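Newbie here. two chains, one complex. Structure please?
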Amino acid sequence: METQPKTVSEYLIRRLADYGVEHIFGVPGDYVLQFFQQLENSPLRVINTCDEQGAGFAADAYARLRGLGVVCVTYCVGGLKIVNSTAQAFAEKSPLVVISGAPGLSERWRNPLLHHKVRDFDTQLQIFRQLTVAATDLTEVENGCCEIDRVLAAAVRYKRPVYIELPRDLTTATCSCPRDPMPPPEASDPQALREALDEAVRRITRACRPVLIAGIEIQRFGLQQSFLEFVHKTGIPFATTPLSKSTLSEDHPLFLGVYAGAVGKEETRQAVENSDCLIMLGAFMTDVNLGIFTARLDQALTISSASDGSCMAFHRYPDVFLTDFLQGLCDADIVALSGRVPVDRPKLEPSPAFETRDEPITIRRLFVCLETVIDGRMVLLADPGEAMFAAIDLTIRHPAVFLAPAYYTSMGFAVPGAIGAQLARPDLRPLVLVGDGAFQMTGMEISTAARFGLSPIVVVLNNSGYGTERPMTDGGFNDIPAWRYSRLPEAIGSGLGFEVFTETQFAEALKAALDNSLVPTVIDVHLDANDHSPALKRLTDALGAKVRASAKLSE
Amino acid sequence: METQPKTVSEYLIRRLADYGVEHIFGVPGDYVLQFFQQLENSPLRVINTCDEQGAGFAADAYARLRGLGVVCVTYCVGGLKIVNSTAQAFAEKSPLVVISGAPGLSERWRNPLLHHKVRDFDTQLQIFRQLTVAATDLTEVENGCCEIDRVLAAAVRYKRPVYIELPRDLTTATCSCPRDPMPPPEASDPQALREALDEAVRRITRACRPVLIAGIEIQRFGLQQSFLEFVHKTGIPFATTPLSKSTLSEDHPLFLGVYAGAVGKEETRQAVENSDCLIMLGAFMTDVNLGIFTARLDQALTISSASDGSCMAFHRYPDVFLTDFLQGLCDADIVALSGRVPVDRPKLEPSPAFETRDEPITIRRLFVCLETVIDGRMVLLADPGEAMFAAIDLTIRHPAVFLAPAYYTSMGFAVPGAIGAQLARPDLRPLVLVGDGAFQMTGMEISTAARFGLSPIVVVLNNSGYGTERPMTDGGFNDIPAWRYSRLPEAIGSGLGFEVFTETQFAEALKAALDNSLVPTVIDVHLDANDHSPALKRLTDALGAKVRASAKLSE
C-alpha cells in the first residue's frame, strides 16, 4: 500500500511522479541539499549536470517529450544560471518545473546578508515571475500542498514553465496533504465553441484548396491522433512549422513539408500561400516560422485555434480552445476533399541512396548521408545555426522525433537536450547536430551523458566560428578557438571520437557510432567556412537584409 | 585631433574609453552584430568567450581591477545567460556595464513574435532592473547620450552593475553628443559630516583597543592610500574580510588577519571581538564575512561608514559617505595609539620554506607550497569551495591581488575571471584555484585565455565532487564525472597539462608553469575526498549545523 506523504517536499515528489516524471535535473547547493537527499531516497532519479545551464536545457527537452520536466537548483547562484533556459521553455511552450532551494524563513529575521542573496530575499522570485505562468514561494506550511497543486496544474494547462521556491526549513515541514484528484483541464465555453465550429465548417466546406498547419501545440497537448483523424476524414493536406517539425511523420501522403515563408522549400510555400482556407492548429506565428517575415498569408482566409483562444479572419473567439475545437472539427459534418480541387502536393522523392566519395564533405552531402540513417529509433536534436536550418530541410520519413529551439533559438541547447531526450525516451537514440560555436557553450555535458550511460551521437559542424553570422556581418568576433573535438572523449574519460574531412570518413564514423550504442560519440566534421546549406542561405539573406535595413534607416 | 562621436554607439564607446575601459567581453548575435562591428573598428578590443556566462565573469573581474568592466551580448539568448554573473556583481559591488542588443524599434510594430523574444519586448529590461542600480533602453535618439552618461555615472558612483539596451536601429543613429564633463561624485552633507566626525573622533580617542576593518569598498573606491594614512597616523591595527582580502598587503606590521568570525583564524577573531571601538570602513557584513553568524560583535561599540551612509552604535547618518568620512578622519586630530593599550597582534610567521616530500599531496601542504611562490607579480583567483576557503587562510605577503566571490559565492567564476584579470592587469599573472566541480562549469574558457595570449595557471583541486557539501549532506548528487583535466590543453590545442598525485610532482608542475608564461597551464591535483583545509572544516561545521537546525526545526 502506498504511504501518504507527510511533508511538503514528499508531497511535491509524489505529485511530480503522478505526472509521469521519473528524472530530475540539477546541481545541488547548500540551500537545497536536504531536498536533494529526499530526492535520492525517492523513486525519482537525480541527474546532476556539469553546470546548471545544462540541467535547464536537459529538463526542457525532457518536458517536451514527457509532458513535464523538472530542474532543481540552489538559491540564486543556481537559479539565476537557468534564467535563459527557462525563458526558452516559456517562449516555446515547454512545461518545465523549476524548483529552487532558498534560505529558511527562520534565517531571514532582520534581513541579514545571507550568502547568495542579491538585493532582497524575493529577487529570484520576481525574476521568475517574468518567465513563468505560475510562481510560488512556499512560505506557509498550511497551504503548501495546495500551492504545489495549483502551480503544477498551470504548467500542464499552459505548457509553460512554473516556479516553486522551497525555503529550506519548510522542506521537511509536516503538512496535511489534500492530494485532490488532478484538476480537469479548462474547457471552452460551449456556446462560443458551437458558434466557432459552425463558422469553421462553413469556411472549410466552401473552400477549394483548404490546407492545415500542425503547430507545436499539436505535440504539446498530445493531439497527433485527432489531427490525423481529421486529415484522413477530409483529405485536407497539411504542413508543419520549424518548431513543430516531425510532430507528424513526414512520409504521410498528405504531408506538404515544413512551412517557413521564403526560408522553407518553395513548393511548400506555394501550397500554403495559395490556399483559400488555411487552418492553423496550435501554431504560433513567430518570425522564424514566418521566414523572417517573408511569409505572405492572407489573414482573411485563415482559421486559427490554439490553447489560448481561436481566431477566424479578423475576429477572435477568446474562449474557444484548441483541444475542444479540434475534437469538434473531427465530429463535424465536413465533406471530404475528393469532390473539390486538391492542392498540388510536392512529390516525396525516394529515400536517397548515398554513395560516399573520397572528397571533402559538404553540408549538403552531409545531410544527404544523414537522411539515409535516420529512422524511427532516433531523436534528432539540432542547435540553432546551420545545424538547425539544414535539419529543417531534412525529410524525416519515420516517426522519428525532432527537437530544436526553432523560435527562441538559444545556442547550447542540443547536447544537454540530448540527455533529457534519451532519459525521457530510452527507446530513442539521440543524434545531435551542433555547430562548433554552440558546442563550446555546453558541449562538455557529453560527460554527463557518459556518466549516466547515455549514448548521443554528436555531430559537430565545424566551420571555425559563428557561421550563421558571417554572411550578415563578419569580423574577428565570429571566430572561435579551434578545439580538437574528437579528443574530448579521451579528456572526459569516456566515449568515441572521430575527426573527419571527407565523405568516406564521415560515413565510417557514423557507422562506428551507430554500432556502439553504449557510449557517446563525438564526430568533428571539418567544413569549409563558406559552405552553407540552401536553407541557411535563404535565412541569412533575409536576416542580413534586416541588419542592413536598420543600419540604413538610422543613417 | 580627436573626432567627435556622431552616433549613439560611437558616443557609448568613447565614454567607456574615457572611464579607462580597453576591453569588452561578450558573444555576438544578430541583434548586436552591428555594434560588434563598430567595436572592432574602435580602440576597444573585443574578447569573445565560449559562452556568455564566461564573458560575464570575465567582465566582473575586469571591473574589480579597473573600476569599470563591460559585457556585451545579444538580446535574451545572450543577456539572460548572464543574469547570475550580473547578480554576483550587484551583490559584491562590482561596477559592471551590461550592454545588450535588442530588436529595432521599427521592428516592434504590432508586437510580433520576433526570435529571442520571451514575453514582452521589455522582459529582459525588467529582469535587469532587479540586478542593477541604473537601467535604460535607448528608445530615443535625442536623449540617448544623456542616458548613457547617467547610467555609467551610476556604475561608478555605486560600484554596482548598470544595464544599457541598444535597439539595433538606434546603433547607428546620429545624435548631438553633449559630452559633458563627467559628473562629480555625490558628496556628503557638510553639517552631517561634521557631526559624524566629531562623534567618531570622541569614540576613537577614548577607546583603549580600537581596531579598523578594511572592507571591500576601500578597494572599489581606491581608498587604500587614505586608509593606510590613517593607520600610520594613529597606529590602529586593521583586519580585512574574506571579500576584501589582500586589499592591503598582508605583511603590514599592523595587519591582524582576515576576520570571518569562527571561520577565520582564532587570533584575528580575538583581536576584533575584544576591541572597544571597531571602525568598519567600506565593509558590508555578510554571513560569510561573519563566519555564518559565528561572529560576536557588539554593535554599541562599532563605527561603520560605507558608500551608502554611515552608522555609529545604533544610530545612522544616511548622508555621510565613506570617501568624505575617511578623509575627515585623516584630517582630524586623533592621538596616536602609543599612549593607549594596543591589542595583541598575531605574529607574522616567517615565509615558510617548502621541502617537497614524495608523498601524496594534501590540501594543507598544497597551500604551504603555494605560499612560497605567490609574489607581487600575481593575481590570485579562487572559486568558492575548498579553493576559496583555504585561500583565505593564505598569507599574501606582497601586494598581490586576490579575487574571489566571497559573499555571493557563485561557482565557476575563477577561470573566466582570470581572463578579465590578466587583461585588466597585464603585469600580473593569474593563479587560479578551482575545485573540480567549479571547473566543469566554466573551465573550458581556458581556450579563450589561450586564444588571446593569456597564461593563467589553473590548479584544479580534484576531490571527485562537491567537497564543500559532503560534510554537510552527502549523496550521489555530490559526485561528478572524472575528467582528465591535464588532457584538456591537448583537446583545445594549446597550453600545458599536468596530472599530479604527490608533493614533488606538484612542485615540479608549478615550476614548469611559472617557467612558461606564454600559455595557460592546467594542473590536475588528485586529493583525498576526505581531506579538508582547517578553514573549510570550520565553515562546514557552521553550515552543516544550519542545515541540521532547519531540518530539526521543522520536524
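Moderator note: The first strand of chain A starts at residue 23 and ends at 26. The mean pLDDT of chain A is 89. Thread marked as resolved.
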